[in-house]
Amino acid sequence: EPIILFEHVNKTYKNGTIGLKDINLSIPKGQFLVVVGLSGAGKSTLLRTINRMHGITDGKLYVDGDEISQYKGKALRTLRRQIGMIFQNFNLVNRSSVQKNVLSGRVGYYPAWKSILGLFSKSDRDKAVRSLRRVNMLEKLYARADELSGGQQQRVAIARTLMQDPKIILADEPIASLDPKTTKTVMDTLKSLNQEDEMTVIVNLHSVSLAREYADRIIGLRAGEVVYDQMIENVKEAD
Ligand code: ADP
Ligand code: ADP
């Protein structure tokens, strides 16, 4: 059974722009899927339908066997906890410590007043340590987020999503603002979560050469449609 299944999914934004057009896509558990396409092709829209940052207009969208397109309230919160997301701009609180940023991955699990006061449990503080160790960033526990390089910040953002124990990680152009060396540390981290922790990872990328290096499968989007879909062993030099 696929962990994510799109059946005839369309997404039209309120202003009439077509985001996704008849997407049919079955993503097996544990796949490392890279989505490529020009700016505006729909990559970001595709990712954001999976955790319901965007609703879909029609079709069916299943996550782990459940049709999620009408989810509300508690079902939606539970869905979102299973799905970690990282962004091009890291979305860290710059003036806060790495530790606080990582713990913020647990904020939704506490009453608001406790998280405002920073009253996290011992088990969550231990979990933050394990998450940071997992991404090789433990030595920066007390550093301020804005003292770190871009690649380090992105790994802290990954550690923050690990606080939710996600089954799925969605990465929207995670290396778009990084240099080649730090790009590798971030992509290697995602690959290791995929291979060692069996997380399903979906990454939007501009670079086809990076896609070839890391993906199990590459799909191409153009104008909201899937125009290319190959397992890595079938990707040809000319593609
Ligand atoms: P990509 O991630 O491949 O750059 P997007 O998914 O961001 O593509 O965008 C797909 C299309 O949807 C583009 O035409 C874009 O302008 C449009 N779009 C994205 N977000 C919105 C929005 N919130 N409202 C209206 N149109 C949007
Ligand atoms: P759009 O992307 O054009 O805003 P959507 O279909 O994504 O259209 O969302 C319609 C409205 O519902 C938006 O105001 C959006 O913020 C909100 N919305 C979308 N998904 C959810 C959700 N899972 N939970 C709560 N509100 C949502």
From TrEMBL:
One of its GO terms (molecular function) is ATP binding. GO terms for cellular component: membrane. The keyword Protease does not apply. Pfam families: ABC_tran (PF00005). NCBIfam families: ABC_phnC. Residues 4-239 form the ABC transporter domain. Keywords: ATP-binding, Cell membrane, Membrane, Nucleotide-binding, Phosphonate transport, Translocase, Transport. This is Phosphate phosphonate ABC transporter ATPase. PANTHER family: AMINO ACID IMPORT ATP-BINDING PROTEIN, PHOSPHONATES IMPORT ATP-BINDING PROTEIN PHNC. It comes from Pediococcus stilesii.
